[in-house]
Amino acid sequence: MNELIEKLVKEAGLTEAQAKQAISTIKNYVVEKFPMLEGAVNNVFGAS
Questions:
Q1: DSSP annotation string for 4-48
Q2: Residue 9: which residues within 8 A CB-CB, separation 6 or more?
Q3: pLDDT the model gives residue 17
Q4: Could you tell me the maximum CA-CA distance found in the chain, to the nearest angstrom?
Q5: What is the reported pLDDT for 48?
Q6: 3 three-state secondary structure
Q7: CB 45 within 8 A of CB 34
Q8: In the prediction, which pLDDT does 24 show?
Q9: b or e along 18-45 (b: 16 or more beta carbons within 10 Å of the residue's beta carbon)?
Q10: What is the pLDDT of residues 10-48, one digit of tens each?
Q11: Helix crossing, 16-33 with 38-45: angle to 10°?
């Protein structure tokens, strides 16, 4: 996940905190819309 955070900081101009919040928001959205993918999403983004 650190690689994704670094990519968002570098390419999108986000701060590290903003990048982490963006990832968390996307993760939560995907799990909300597709609950059957929760295990896969947690594997990719980490469980929180």
A1: HHHHHHHHH---HHHHHHHHHHHHHHHHHH-GGGHHHHHHHH---
A2: 15, 16, 19
A3: 97
A4: 32
A5: 60
A6: helix
A7: no
A8: 93
A9: ebbeebeeebeebbeeeeeeeeebeeeb
A10: 999 999 999 999 999 999 999 999 999 999 998 988 776
A11: 170
Sequence letter at residue 46: G
Six token digits for residue 37:
């993918």
Alpha-carbon distance of 7 to 47, in angstroms, equals 20
Q: What's at 8, amino acid-wise?
A: L
Range of the domain at 17: 2-45
* Number of domains present in the structure of the chain: 1
Q: What was the pLDDT predicted at 45?
A: 83
